[in-house]
Amino acid sequence: xxxxxxxxxxxxxxxxxxxxxxxxxxxxxxxxxxxxxxxxxxxxxxxxxxxxxxxxxxxxxxxxxxxxxxxxxxxxxxxxxxxxxxxxxxxxxxxxxxxxxxxxxxxxxxxxxxxxxxxxxxxxxxxxxxxxxxxxxxxxxxxxxxxxxxxxxxxxxxxxxxxxxxxxxxxxxxxxxxxxxxxxxxxxxxxxxxxxxxxxxxxxxxxxxxxxxxxxxxxxxxxxxxxxxxxxxxxxxxxxxxxxxxxxxxxxxxxxxxxxxxxxxxxxxxxxxxxxxxxxxxxxxxxxxxxxxxxxxxxxxxxxxxxxxxxxxxxxxxxxxxxxxxxxxxxxxxxxxxxxxxxxxxxxxxxxxxxxxxxxxxxxxxxxxxxxxxxxxxxxxxxxxxxxxxxxxxxxxxxxxxxxxxxxxxxxxxxxxxxxxxxx
Length: 424
Description:
Blueprint: H1 21-28, E1 33-39, E2 42-47, H2 48-64, E3 72-76, H3 81-92, E4 96-100, H4 106-115, E5 120-123, H5 126-135, E6 144-147, E7 158-159, H6 160-168, H7 172-181, E8 187-193, E9 201-206, H8 207-219, E10 228-231, H9 238-249, E11 253-256, H10 264-271, E12 275-278, H11 280-291, H12 296-314, H13 321-341, E13 348-351, H14 358-367, E14 371-375, E15 385-386, E16 399-400, E17 405-408, E18 414-417
Parallel strand pairs: 1-11, 3-4, 3-5, 5-6, 6-7, 10-11, 12-13, 13-14
Antiparallel strand pairs: 1-2, 8-9, 14-15, 15-16, 17-18
Helix pairs in contact: 1-2, 2-3, 2-6, 4-5, 8-9, 12-13, 12-14
């Protein structure tokens, strides 16, 4: 029986697949900022029109190198703008994206590239090329290596800039035809995820899976039109990938971290994001940072005051002058500094992948930094349940996404059905 589908939000590009998503975004959101990145101590912006041009050149370059629809192309790179450009380029050429964690060893890279029968691999730099060179004789399907940063010993790898130059020689219409020929049922990505036994298993996810989970998230306003997202999570993981797709579909901007985990908080303060996808350890670190020198009883009392005020505000009820005075003092002494640590504009943060302490969630919510939990797996195209600022219970992973059905089997197993569920 075919699963239910969810229609795109009004602000969506209206794409049918991930293959045509960036092309439509480049037209619809042309002058908006798509990408922010830090170089030489300054933040630089790239518009949607420019990103669309870059993606088109890479996509046409892949066609020039002989990449055929349905062939697998691995992507071995850390979170940076080039990851996004290459991801959309592979999809627009009708090929399948196979992410590889940049921390993987040569043998782990060999497993993912070999098991997926990748015919090409895009590497970030010489250090990643070296991993593939070490195991290349064990990869009979691999025809070519592309390198984003060609400095150093990159063997016979094709530089990404050279690939773009080759792409410019081909007609843009050719890539548009490739993208238009992709169907929702075609495979978009194969994400290798560690199981309980043996080597990582490739989770095969279709364009329909990810287009639908984007629609599902948009229906409950996980991200809103034009939001600025700060992204440091690995794009080889389903969580960051979904946020990337959501941002592009809604014309949002992604500020990519500079590569140093120690600079995440300073960069949050510099970029002032609206949305932060993260994992518990970052919230735990910030919680420790802002509370380590404070009186625990003061923290506890301020949190309770903040929670009371937030609850009254959410219910549309008046806050008494006495409670407001307590809140104002807590806000001046603590809350505003916490919001400042996240850039001062954060509307929502999301956390997943591991549990997070209720006291941390309550503290941040009291401060005006709502951290919402969700639950899902790679097999659910990232997510199946989520909390929203408008509908949440702290300590819960939220409700099922629109179009997603969940029940608990007699033995306690979680059973999930929906258009976001992989076909394997």
